[in-house]
Amino acid sequence: RYCGVYQFYLPTLILRDPDLIKQITVKDFDHFVDHRSFVPEDSDPLFAKNLFSLTGQKWRDMRSTLSPTFTSSKMKFMFSLISQNGEQFVKHFLKQNQDIITVEMKDTFTRFTNDVIANTAFGVKCDSLGQPKNEFYMMG
């Protein structure tokens, strides 16, 4: 179900059993607050404040803040909103009616992500691909 290894001088626990992983991440998460961070806080302050990068009391506080947001019923509701954005994304490119479309991927997915966040987090419907200068995208 689990094993331990050393990564140089650091002991590491490897979980292999899905039921054990679920138990730790859902029920016993409060006992596993300190983990190795991927990026030092001084090199990338934005990523270092991510839930997966926090440790100790900062992690506990962030987890208790975010947990009510991601209940199963809210996730199901968010899925339908994200699906709507996905359909809008596809329709945008189908409307162009071309065999080959040249797309700048970073800009395109930034706009898609902006629409998903606007829709799910703020309840604002916008079409950043169809209306590139919309207010929500420009302010974001």
From TrEMBL:
GO terms for cellular component: endoplasmic reticulum membrane. It is a peripheral membrane protein. One of its GO terms (molecular function) is monooxygenase activity. Its cofactor is heme. Keywords: Endoplasmic reticulum, Heme, Iron, Membrane, Metal-binding, Microsome, Monooxygenase, Oxidoreductase. It is found in: Endoplasmic reticulum membrane; Microsome membrane. Belongs to the cytochrome P450 family. PANTHER family: CYP9F3-RELATED, CYTOCHROME P450. This is p450 domain containing protein. The lineage of its organism: Eukaryota, Metazoa, Ecdysozoa, Arthropoda, Hexapoda.
